[in-house]
């Protein structure tokens, strides 16, 4: 009987690719099981499991753009 294989990390990123959860390359992230973003909350959307640098939601800063302020000049 052949020995069972150990489950591998969820994803091993190829050369030059980045993790979709933390945004780091293979030197810092070796798969979801050891991803630094695992269990962390996103500063952009507030959801768990990824960093804001890898967030796929529309950035909050784009949603809350300050409106142009117009100052009224009164001539005396």
TrEMBL record:
Annotated GO MF terms: nucleic acid binding; zinc ion binding
Sorted UniProt keywords: Metal-binding, Zinc, Zinc-finger
Domain of life: Eukaryota
CCHC-type domain boundaries: 42-57
Family matches, as PROSITE patterns: ZF_CCHC
Name of the molecule in the record: CCHC-type domain-containing protein
Organism: Ixodes ricinus (Common tick)
């Amino acid at each position: 009987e052949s020995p069972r294989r150990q489950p591998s990390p969820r994803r091993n990123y190829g050369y030059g690719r980045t993790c979709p959860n933390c945004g780091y390359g293979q030197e810092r992230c070796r798969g979801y099981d050891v991803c630094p973003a695992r269990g962390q909350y996103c500063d952009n959307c507030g959801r768990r499991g990824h960093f804001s640098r890898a967030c796929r939601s529309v950035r909050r800063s784009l949603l809350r753009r300050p409106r142009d302020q117009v100052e009224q000049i009164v001539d005396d």
